[in-house]
Design brief:
heterodimer, A: 375 residues, alpha+beta, Cytochrome-c3 Hydrogenase, chain B, 3-stranded antiparallel beta sheet, 16 helices, 8 strands, B: 152 residues, alpha/beta, Beta Polymerase, domain 2, two-stranded parallel ribbon, 3 helices, 7 strands, globular
C-alpha cells in the first residue's frame, strides 16, 4: 500500500517536464512566455519567448522625424517614459550643440526622479503581490497616484507624457508644481516607512528572497545587467554618476551599491534608490532658475551625418540610443539598447536550481517591463 | 587608456584594422575572420579589459551589412567601438561573441531576426521576436511589406 502512494510522486520527481508560464500570467507582468523545464518543482532550465508585442519601433523610427520619435520612446518602457524622452532629446541637443536653458535642466532632472520613484512604487506593489501580499499592491498604487497627479497637472497626461521636446519642454510647469512636489515628498517620507514595516523586515519575505537567485559581479557585467539589479551585485553602472546629464552633477546623492547580489538586495537597492531620488528632488526643487522653458529650435530638425550614442539611467538600468544619421530629417538607423532586454537574458542563469516559486521572486526582483523587451 | 594608445593597441592586434573618425568613441573596422580572437584578447588582456558589451547591433548599409559592438571597460573606464562588415547579403555570417560576453546571446538572436545575419557557433540561433515562418528580415533597407508598412 505504501508503495502505491509513493510511485506517482517518484515518477514526477525523476522526469523532466515543461510548463508554459505566460503569455497570460500575472507574475510575468505582461505578455512574456517562459517555457520552464522542471524536475519536481526545481527549475532545470528556462527559455523566454518574446515578441508578443513587438511593434518594430526601430523600423518605424526610420520613417519618423526626431520630435516624432520621442512619442514612440514613451511606448517602450512606459514606467520610465520621461527618462526615455530625455534620452532622445539629449541625443538631438548634443548632435546640434544646442545649449538648453538651466531651467529646463532642473525641471527635467526633477521629473526624471519623480518618474523613478513612481516606477519603483509600482515595482514594490507588484513584488509584494507576486509573493502573495496583496496589501502592498494597494499601498503602492495609492502613493503612485500622487505622482501621476503631479504629472497630469504639468504635463497634461498620466502615463505617456511626451513632455520633453528637443531643446526644452512642451510647455512650462504648472504654477503649483513646486508645492505639489514638496507636499508629495513630505507625504511619501512618512509612507515609505510603512513599506519597510510591511515587507523589508518581514520574516516570510526575507526567507523567500535572501540567498535566492544570486548574481556575481562578473556575471552581472558579462550579462550586461544594469540599473538597481546590477548595482545590487556590485557593478557600478549608474549613468547619472559616470556620465552625468541634466543637473545630476550639482546634486549630492549616493550610488547604491551592494555586493551580495541576491533577490533581497535587489529589493533593498530599489528601496534605497527611492530615498536617494527624494534627496535629489529636495535639493533641486527650490532652486529652479527663472527663464525660458525651451531653447530656440529650427522647425525641421536635421542631424549632421554621423553616428551618435546617448545613454540615460532609467528606473531599470542603462538605456542607450545608437543613431546613424545621413543628414536627413529622419535617422538612417536607430537602435534602442533597452535595459530590460539585457536583464531578461540572465533569468535562466539565475533561476536554475531554485523552485518555481522562487522564479516568481527572481523575476519580480528584475522588474521587467515587457514592451521595453519587445520594442 | 586614451584613444591614441588604444589605437596603437588595436593596430598591433589586428594590422588590417581601419579607423573611422568619430568624436565620441574610437571606432575600428575589424575583418570578420579576426573578430573572435581580437575580441577575446581585448577582453582578457590586463591593459584593455573590455568586460562590458553595452550595445551590439546590426546595420544595413545597403552595400554591405555591418555589426557594431560598443565595448566598455568597467575597470579602466575606456570605451571602443568595433565594426565588422558582412559583404555577402544573401548568406551573411559572422562569428559569435556570446562565449565572451553572455549578453550577446540575446542581442545576436535579435540581429539575426531583424537583419538576417547568421552567427557561427551560436548555441541557439533562432528568431527571437518574429514568428518562425516569417519571410524576410524587417530592418533590411530593401524589405517590402505591403500589408504592414504604409509608404507615403
Amino acid at each position: 500500500m505504501k508503495e502505491v502512494i509513493h510511485t506517482p510522486v517518484k515518477a514526477l520527481e525523476e522526469e523532466e517536464y515543461h510548463i508554459n508560464m505566460g503569455p497570460q500570467h500575472p507574475s510575468t507582468h505582461g505578455v512574456l512566455r517562459l517555457v520552464v523545464s522542471l524536475q519536481g518543482e526545481i527549475v532545470k532550465s528556462l527559455k523566454p519567448h518574446c515578441g508578443y508585442i513587438h511593434r518594430g519601433i526601430e523600423k518605424m523610427c526610420e520613417k519618423d522625424t526626431y520630435p516624432q520619435i520621442i512619442h514612440l520612446t514613451d511606448r517602450m518602457d512606459y514606467l520610465s517614459a520621461h527618462i526615455n524622452n530625455h534620452g532622445v532629446c539629449l541625443l538631438v541637443e548634443d548632435a546640434l550643440q544646442i545649449e538648453v536653458p538651466e531651467r529646463v535642466k532642473y525641471i527635467r532632472t526633477i521629473i526624471d526622479e519623480l518618474t523613478r520613484i513612481q516606477s519603483h512604487q509600482l515595482w514594490w506593489a507588484c513584488f509584494g503581490m507576486d509573493l502573495g501580499g496583496l496589501t502592498c499592491f494597494f499601498y503602492g498604487l495609492r502613493d503612485r497616484e500622487k505622482i501621476l497627479d503631479i504629472f497630469e497637472e504639468s504635463c497634461g497626461s498620466r502615463l505617456l507624457h511626451s513632455y520633453y521636446t528637443p531643446g526644452g519642454l512642451m510647455w512650462d510647469i504648472h504654477p503649483n508644481f513646486q508645492k505639489s512636489v514638496k507636499d508629495f515628498i513630505k507625504y511619501f517620507r512618512k509612507k515609505i516607512k510603512d513599506y519597510d514595516r510591511l515587507l523589508s523586515g518581514n520574516i516570510i519575505f526575507m526567507e523567500r528572497t535572501k540567498n535566492v537567485g544570486h548574481l556575481s559581479k562578473e556575471d552581472a557585467i558579462s550579462y550586461g545587467i544594469t540599473g538597481p539589479s546590477g548595482r545590487a551585485s556590485g557593478f557600478s553602472c549608474d549613468i547619472r554618476k559616470h556620465h552625468p546629464y541634466g543637473v545630476y552633477d550639482k546634486a549630492d546623492f549616493r550610488e547604491i551599491l551592494f555586493t551580495e547580489g541576491d533577490t533581497y538586495h535587489r529589493y533593498i537597492a530599489r528601496m534605497d534608490e527611492m530615498h536617494e531620488s527624494m534627496k535629489i528632488i529636495e535639493q533641486l526643487i527650490d532652486n529652479i532658475p527663472a527663464g525660458d522653458f525651451s531653447a530656440k529650435m529650427k522647425a525641421v530638425i536635421k542631424l549632421p551625418a554621423g553616428e551618435y550614442y546617448q545613454r540615460v539611467e532609467t528606473a531599470r538600468g542603462e538605456m542607450g540610443i545608437y543613431c546613424i544619421s545621413d543628414g536627413n530629417k529622419t535617422p538612417y538607423r536607430i537602435k534602442f539598447r533597452s535595459p530590460n532586454f539585457s536583464n531578461l537574458g540572465v533569468l535562466d542563469h539565475l533561476s536554475r536550481g531554485f523552485k518555481i516559486a522562487d522564479l516568481v521572486a527572481i523575476g519580480a526582483s528584475l522588474d521587467f517591463v515587457i514592451p521595453d523587451i519587445d520594442r | 587608456m586614451d584613444q591614441d594608445k588604444l589605437k596603437e593597441r588595436i593596430t598591433a592586434l589586428v594590422p588590417e584594422a581601419e579607423f573611422e573618425e568619430n568624436k565620441q568613441f574610437l571606432t575600428a573596422f575589424i575583418p570578420a575572420g579576426k573578430l573572435h580572437t581580437a575580441a577575446q584578447n581585448l577582453k582578457e588582456a590586463e591593459d584593455t579589459a573590455f568586460d562590458y558589451l553595452f550595445c551590439q547591433t546590426g546595420v544595413d548599409m545597403t552595400k554591405y551589412l555591418m555589426v557594431v559592438y560598443h565595448l566598455n571597460s568597467t575597470k579602466h573606464g575606456h570605451s571602443v567601438v568595433l565594426k565588422v562588415k558582412a559583404d555577402d547579403r544573401v548568406n551573411p555570417a559572422i562569428d559569435t561573441v556570446c562565449d565572451i560576453w553572455r549578453t550577446a546571446e540575446f542581442l545576436e538572436r535579435e540581429i539575426y531576426d531583424l537583419l538576417g545575419i547568421h552567427f557561427n557557433n551560436h548555441p541557439d540561433m533562432r528568431r527571437i521576436f518574429l514568428d518562425e515562418n516569417w519571410k524576410g528580415h524587417p530592418l533590411r533597407k530593401d524589405y517590402k511589406d505591403e500589408v504592414n508598412i504604409v509608404e507615403l
